[in-house]
Amino acid sequence: MSQLSHGISFQDVGRTFLTREGATLTALETVRFDVKPGEFLSLLGPSGCGKTTLLRMTAGLLAPSWGKVIVGSSEVTRPRPDFGVVFQQPLLLPWLTVASNVLLPVDVQGRRVADFVDRAYELLEMVGLKGFEKRLPSELSGGMQQRVALARGLIHDPKLLLMDEPFAALDAMTRENMNIELQRIWSANRKTVLFVTHGIPESVFLSDRVVVMSARPGRISKIVDIPFQRPRLPSLLGTAEFAELVAEIRATFDEAHHPLAAAA
Hints:
The chain is an alpha/beta fold. It has eight helices and ten strands. The strands form two sheets. The chain has a six-stranded mixed sheet with strand order 6-7-8-3-9-10, with helices on both faces.
């Protein structure tokens, strides 16, 4: 069932919005960069910098005001069934079992659900939820619910996985565990992942590259290659090399958002 992953090309993409007063607000300046097929790339920046706007344009949920988003060889103009999306909140239907929630995208796309039941159970085992298939979301912790959402995002074997701060609502320990779990799952599937976050250590631990964005209007401040080999163990978080790279990105981040302070 596995498919080749797609790359993404942002070709001079920008986005404006109209305020309630009728003024034009530039949320995203002209942005140009590529995501390689099979790459795990993080968009890092503060709230309001346009990183979620970029992700929504990639998902076909929002049109650019100018420029193009190309996935594979096609321009994105609408939502596509071969994409998987994982949001900040799990957004599980409370009356459906865990397995039925995972199978929901298949049902919505009009596919034969019975053909995907075995895959749903395999994915739930992969995310550590074997034995919870018939439970309801209310019987799960927040971290477990987000694991269900991750399995749901993978059920139809997407060519591209878009993740919008999926662990932001979790406590620090659960979030760290989910980062380790996500790395393991990504290594097994090698999907192209576009991951939105405002956590610098999280982006360094997970990514092949990190795109650092400025405050609104969002621009690309720097693209940082992450040199650490995979698999990355939790012990990496305590190394001097990890701390140095986090500090380097934080300095870029601070300079982009507080240029006067950086120059002082």
